[in-house]
Amino acid sequence: MSETSSAQRIYWVGGSKGGVGKSMMTMATLDYLIERGDRVALIETDTSNHDVWNAYHEQVPSGLFDLDRADGWIDFVNTCSTQRDRTVVVNTAARNNIAVRQHAETLNRSLDELGARLLTLWVINRQRDGLELLEEFIDAVPKADVHVVRNGHFGDERMFELYNQSKIKAAIEKRGGRSLTLPDLADRVADDLYSQRIAINAAAKSLPIGNRAELGRWRSQVGRVLAEVMA
């Protein structure tokens, strides 16, 4: 099935560990989809640090669910059902691989009835554990289409040697997945987004001119990256 299918798309922004850039990737995904005119809904599962929900809950339909609990998975699936006319973007918490192993079958069993595709954007830094966690995720959620996102904050794609030379990269690309690189955003602008709890499209209008110029550069590069998997 191609990316142009009319099936509902659920973008799962994962990585399992903290500090790899999942929240920034989720905000970039939301921003790209909103700017191109998609109807979007947000599911925030980081109940401790819900930065993405803070920035976007007034702009798009949003739910805040704890996926450490079975009820959270039920609410997640039910929300996807009630929002079938929207693209759903899921921001995941750092601890979610344990919960995925325990409860992901709830989602697996629901995808066909929902008529939905689960597309995973798995964010990595340059360490090995993110790749091991990705293998666990694929085992737990076999129906997911997986793309790997190297976070450029940790260096350009050549510096991701563990991933670039890994068997998991070859396996992902054999399955039709892509290896992407999220462009780095200047720290001071990223800090603006988080400290002000502001959506990217709002920040593009309200930040000081230099900050807006840097944000515009980054958004343009992000758009070219995401167009590869969201055509």
Describe the fold and architecture.
The chain is of the alpha/beta class and 231 residues long. The protein has one domain: Rossmann fold. It has helices at 22-35, 51-56, 70-82, 96-114, 129-140, 161-164, 167-174, 187-195, 200-206, 209-226; strands spanning 8-14, 40-44, 62-64, 87-91, 116-124, 145-151, 179-182. Helix 1 crosses helix 10, helix 3 packs parallel to helix 4 (96-114) and helix 9 (200-206) packs antiparallel against helix 10. The longest helix is centred in the middle third of the chain and has 19 residues, at 96-114. The protein is globular. The two termini are 13 Å apart. The model has no long low-confidence stretch (mean pLDDT 93).
Q: What is the mean predicted local confidence, pLDDT?
A: 93
CATH architecture: 3-Layer(aba) Sandwich
| Net shape | globular
Please compute the radius of gyration using only Cα atoms: 17 Å
What's the CATH H-level superfamily name? P-loop containing nucleotide triphosphate hydrolases
Percentage beta strand = 15-25%
Span between N and C termini?
13 Å
Percentage of residues in helical conformation = 40-55%
As residue ranges, the low-confidence spans are none
Integer tally of domains: 1
Number of helices: 10
- Text of the CATH class: Alpha Beta
Report the count of strand segments.
7
Major β-sheet annotation:
7 strands, parallel
Across the major sheet, the strand order is: 3-2-4-1-5-6-7
- CATH-defined fold name: Rossmann fold
Order of helices and strands: EHEHEHEHEHEHHEHHH
Q: What would you call the structural class? A: alpha/beta
